[in-house]
Request: fold
Amino acid sequence: MIIAIDGPAASGKGTLARLIAEHLGYACLDTGLLYRAVARDVLARGQSLEDEEFAAQAARMIDTATLDDPELRSPGAGDAASVVAKFPAVRQALLALQRAFADQSPGAVLDGRDIGTVVCPDADIKIFVTADLAVRAQRRFEELRRRGDPVTLEAVTEILRLRDERDQSRADAPMRAASDADLLDTTEMDIEAAFDAAVGLIKRRIARLG
Ligand code: CDP
Reply:
């Protein structure tokens, strides 16, 4: 069983993916961490994020044991990730790893931008999680403030807006809902409500799968 959860930054997809995986006893992969780690490794070698060949090499050499690095969760890492994520050679290099993860028993939940469209187009269940930009910015702002980051709401809003634009406009695997995905708008939901709604969608899909 493969569950694909896609959506923009701070839509709640990461937390939802984790809760769903725990609920079902499935493995969970936050695929954004892969792109974050590629960007980290490129920068650590003193190279430019705009060098596709170098970024692809970092992607081919990625060490999944380093994905729990707390630095990967910083806003700068997310932004850097979206720069290397536009390169087809980087996306290609990360594809086999993601598909191998998805193909495990009893099931896997993967969250990202292109899971339902490119990585696992045959996923059993696809959910595209959205929320208004202002609400996503408020969530990310509160999360960063809790971690002691002195950001402003205006700056967070602008960073998310630019990242959405970059993720939606790239030619290779742009962020979009698969035609057969269920949409889940969490603008007016807290995480418990979003989880209940997602479980409802999953149950309905499973019933239809027979
Ligand atoms: O947690 P947040 O949504 O802020 O970011 P993330 O999911 O860790 O993704 C960071 C960046 O990686 C995104 O802005 C995308 O550019 C890229 N990404 C991607 O292109 N494809 C994926 N499947 C996952 C992430």
About this structure: The two ends are 13 Å apart (CA to CA). The CA atoms of residues 186 and 193 lie 8 Å apart.
